[in-house]
Specification:
This protein is an alpha+beta fold. 33% of the residues lie in helices and 30% in strands. The protein has four helices and eleven strands, in the order αααββαβββββββββ. α3 packs across α4 (133-145). The chain is rod-shaped.
Length: 291
């Protein structure tokens, strides 16, 4: 067979194969397009139906913005469970509270235990020390009202000493709850600010107590060991235990109190003294009597 005829036959066969392949490919493409078109129409109908039954689907941006606002308000107003907790993280958080709100508050810190409550993991810590009652109150207030879910399980407060009117001893157990799946990182939670009213007085201070012995009172006249030796309508003359003569006028300071007033007609000096938490009037007469 001549060379030219053979090449023509081969090219003709290849051309037929290409044409057949193209026809088959186009047929498949048409079927795919028809299938895609059908799926598109079905999805369009489904979406239309969803929009009819759920009008808010047209407000996607508004919904997302609303969810962001809810999350923001949760961080600002509600308690938020942490993503994780470690002794170092909790200690730093407590230090941040003291440095920001109660710089004079000091405490000893100790890890107590770890476990789960209601399926939620927690760590417990013990805090102990002595502190000003107002600082302790403000510290507890911050733990309770800041966003992280730190829970004071128990707290004990007692009077340090009647000589330290505004100081108390304290111990508390602090639980920190966390969830690695649903929790929030503590670095994402800002400190809240509050209007705050502190304690008007120390409720743990004994109003009635044993007599105080304060070194600063030693520099004043002790009327218990002194003698009234003379008085005028506006002055009182006392002799202390060492024989020294001391002149007093109403308002003059004495140990644990002051000279309140002079009853000239009764030859009496009246002192206001407070050594046990109750203010008492002590009357000293020129005759040597005492009431």
């Amino acid at each position: 067979m001549p060379y030219a005829i053979r090449n023509s036959i081969i090219l003709g066969v290849l051309l037929i194969i290409v044409i057949v392949g193209s026809i088959m490919s186009n047929a498949q493409s048409v079927k795919k397009m028809e299938k895609l078109e059908k799926t598109f129409q079905e999805n369009t109908a489904t979406l239309k139906q969803l929009k009819q039954t759920n009008p808010d689907l047209d407000k996607t941006d508004e919904i997302i913005a609303s969810l962001d606002e809810i999350r923001k308000r949760a961080l600002e107003e509600n308690k938020v469970i942490l993503k994780n907790d470690t002794p170092t993280q909790t200690y730093q958080y407590l230090i941040d509270i003291t440095e920001t709100f109660t710089p004079d508050f000091k405490f000893d810190y100790k890890v107590a235990e770890s476990g789960k409550k209601g399926g939620v993991s927690f760590n417990s810590y013990n805090l102990t020390g002595s502190a000003n009652i107002e600082s302790l109150h403000f510290f507890i207030f911050q733990i309770e009202y800041q966003a992280p879910l730190y829970v004071i399980e128990s707290v004990r407060i007692s009077e340090t000493s009647v000589a330290l009117k505004d100081t108390v001893d304290f111990s508390m157990k602090l639980n920190v709850f966390y969830d690695k799946k649903t929790g929030t990182s503590i670095s994402e939670i800002p400190f809240r600010t509050f209007s705050y009213v502190n304690l008007p007085y120390n409720p743990f201070y004994s109003r009635i107590h044993t007599p105080l012995d304060r070194e600063e009172e030693d520099k004043y006249l002790n009327i218990i060991t002194s003698t009234l030796i003379g008085l005028t309508p506006d002055k009182v003359f006392m002799r202390d235990s060492r024989g020294k003569i001391v002149t007093l006028v109403p308002g003059s300071r004495v140990a644990y109190g002051y000279l309140s007033y002079i009853q000239w007609n009764r030859q009496c000096a009246v002192f206001k003294i407070n050594r046990i938490g109750i203010s008492q009037d002590i009357k000293m007469y020129l005759s040597g009597e005492e009431q």
